[in-house]
Amino acid sequence: MDETKHTRKKAEANKSKKLMLEIKDLRKSFGDNHVLNGFNLELFEGENIVIMGKSGSGKSVMIKCLVGLMAPDSGTIKIMDRNLLGLDQRALDELRSEIGFLFQGSALYDSMTVKENLEFPLRRHKHKFGDLTDTTPLVQEALDSVGLVHALNLMPSELSGGMKRRVALARTLILKPKIILYDEPTSGLDPITSKEIIELMRSIQNKYNTSSLIITHDVDCARVVSERMILLIDGINYAEGTFDELKTSNDKKVKAFFK
Ligand SMILES: Nc1ncnc2c1ncn2[C@@H]1O[C@H](COP(=O)(O)OP(=O)(O)OP(=O)(O)O)[C@@H](O)[C@H]1O
Ligand SMILES: [Mg+2]
C-alpha cells in the first residue's frame, strides 16, 4: 500500500467531516473470476475521489454494488450511516434518490424527449418530491445547470455526444443527490468537450456541495477533478494519494498507470 504523509494528514483533517460513504472489505467473484478481493473506500462530505483501474479491473462492478444493482459476495457498504446491504426495497429506493449515478455511456432513453428523460427519475422517486403536477421548473433548473435549456424538446438522436452527456448529467442532478457516482464521464468525447464536462462536474459540486466518486481512464480528468485518487489493482484499493503522489510513486504497478 502506498500510504503517504499527505494521506495521513488528510485522514486527520477528515475526522471532523461527515462520512458519506464507506466501503469495507468488498468482495465479488463471477465463478473463478475474482474481481473484487477486499476493496475499501471512505468518501467524505464535499470530497471528490477518482478511481482508476485498467479495463476489466472491476470499477463498474464496484459502482453497481454501490447502487444496489449488483449484490456483492461479502463486505459492507454504508451510505450516510445506513447499511445498504440490509435495506428492504423501499428503504433502498429512498437511499437511491440520494445517489446520482451517471452511467458509463449516457444511457438516455432513445424514445423519450430530453424533458421526458429528466422526468423519469422524478416519477420513480415520488417520495422525495411528492406527486408533481408540473415538473417543468425542476426540469428547467437541471437543464440550466448544464447549459441546455434550449434542448428541452429534442430527442436524444438530435443531440451531439457532449450534449447527451450533459443531459445525462442533468438527469442525475434533478433529484439533488448528495453523492454522485460518475462512471467514465468523459469517455468517447473529444478533448475539448471532455474539458467542458469536467468543468461542469466541478461547478455542480460547488453549487450543490455534492461528494463524488469518479471512475475514469482520463488522466487529465483525474488530475483536475480530484483531491484524492485510488488505484484499483488486483481487486483492492492498491494505492491512494493525490495525483502527484501517485504519479511519482516508485511502485511498479502504480508506475505502469502513468506511462
Ligand atoms: N454480470 C457479470 N457477469 C459475469 N462477469 C461479469 C459481470 N459483470 C462484470 N463481469 C466481469 O467482471 C470484471 C470487471 O468488469 P467491470 O465492468 O467492472 O470492469 P471495468 O473496470 O469497469 O472495465 P472498463 O474500464 O472496461 O469499464 C470483468 O472481468 C467482467 O467480465
Ligand atoms: Mg466500466
Biggest sheet record: 6 strands, mixed
The count of domains is 2
* Total beta strands: 10
Q: Write the CATH architecture name of the largest domain.
A: 3-Layer(aba) Sandwich
**CATH domain class name of the largest domain:** Alpha Beta
Quote the beta fraction.
15-25%
Helix content: 25-40%
Number of helices: 11
Q: How many angstroms separate the termini?
A: 20 Å
GO molecular function, one term: ATP binding
Pfam families: ABC_tran
Protein name: ABC transporter ATP-binding protein
InterPro entries: AAA+_ATPase (IPR003593), ABC_transporter-like_ATP-bd (IPR003439), ABC_transporter-like_CS (IPR017871), P-loop_NTPase (IPR027417)
Walk me through this protein's architecture:
- This is ABC transporter ATP-binding protein.
- GO terms for molecular function: ATP binding; ATP hydrolysis activity.
- Keywords: ATP-binding, Nucleotide-binding, Transport.
- By secondary structure, the chain is α/β, with parallel strands linked by helices.
- The chain folds into two domains: 161 residues, P-loop containing nucleotide triphosphate hydrolases (Rossmann fold, 3-Layer(aba) Sandwich); 73 residues, no CATH class.
- Helix content is 39%, strand content 24%.
- The chain is built from eleven helices and ten strands.
- A six-stranded mixed sheet has the order 6-7-8-3-9-10, sandwiched between helices.
- The longest helix is centred in the last third of the chain and has 18 residues.
- The chain is globular, with a radius of gyration of 18 Å.
- The mean pLDDT is 89.
- The structure holds adenosine-5'-triphosphate and magnesium ion.
- The site of adenosine-5'-triphosphate (ATP) has 12 residues, from strand 2 and helix 2.
